[in-house]
């Protein structure tokens, strides 16, 4: 039986980007070993994560870098991935660059999250001050309403007094005219 590589439907890029347990990998499906990636080692990579943390890791004959990238993603202090196949070496370099970009993005996200927390704290403080200001404004408006009521009452009394004064002056004028 003749061996051949062929795409059954559609087109296939030289390398495709896959995600496995939160890590990006470039996989050469047509020319890589098996499917270009050792999918059957997924559970092994997951199981090794705790052992990689804060350790120096040497991955010899690392293939597509499945364990190397898992080690780096799991917080290894350092990772050395050795591969004799030059294509896979370049692929690992690309993956390393992607991982560095991901770490940079994560750092920026942490920074943005910190800034957002600071902003939310300032917003809470502003809202507390606004609430206090609105309470004082409400109190001021109540006092103003009370003052306006007293002023209205005073003006009514003043009007009444002026009417009485006018009446008194008319009577005084009338009295003076009679004298």
UniProtKB/TrEMBL annotation:
SUPFAM superfamilies hit by this protein: S-adenosyl-L-methionine-dependent methyltransferases (SSF53335)
GO biological process: methylation
One Gene Ontology MF term: methyltransferase activity
Gene3D superfamilies to which the protein is assigned, alphabetical: Designed four-helix bundle protein, Vaccinia Virus protein VP39
Classification via CDD domains: AdoMet_MTases (cd02440)
UniProt entry keywords in alphabetical sequence: Coiled coil
Superkingdom per UniProt: Eukaryota
Coiled-coil ranges (or none): 81-129
Record-given protein name: Uncharacterized protein
Organism ancestry: Eukaryota, Metazoa, Spiralia, Lophotrochozoa, Mollusca
């Amino acid at each position: 039986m003749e061996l051949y590589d062929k795409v059954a439907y559609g087109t296939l890029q030289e390398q495709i980007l896959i995600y496995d347990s939160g890590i990006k990998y470039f996989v050469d499906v047509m020319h890589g070993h098996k499917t270009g990636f050792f999918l059957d080692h997924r559970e092994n990579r997951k199981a090794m994560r705790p052992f990689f943390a804060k350790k120096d890791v040497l991955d010899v004959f690392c293939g597509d870098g499945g364990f190397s990238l898992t080690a780096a993603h799991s917080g290894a202090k350092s990772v050395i991935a050795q591969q004799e196949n030059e294509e896979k070496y370049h692929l690992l370099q690309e993956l390393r660059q992607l991982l560095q970009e991901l770490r940079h993005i994560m750092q920026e996200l942490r920074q943005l999250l910190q800034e957002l927390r600071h902003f939310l704290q300032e917003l809470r403080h502003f809202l507390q001050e606004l609430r206090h200001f609105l309470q004082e404004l409400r109190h001021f408006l109540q006092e103003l309403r009370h003052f306006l009521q007293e002023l209205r009452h005073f003006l009514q009394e003043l009007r009444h007094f002026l009417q009485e004064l006018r009446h008194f002056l008319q009577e005084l004028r009338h009295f003076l005219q009679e004298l």
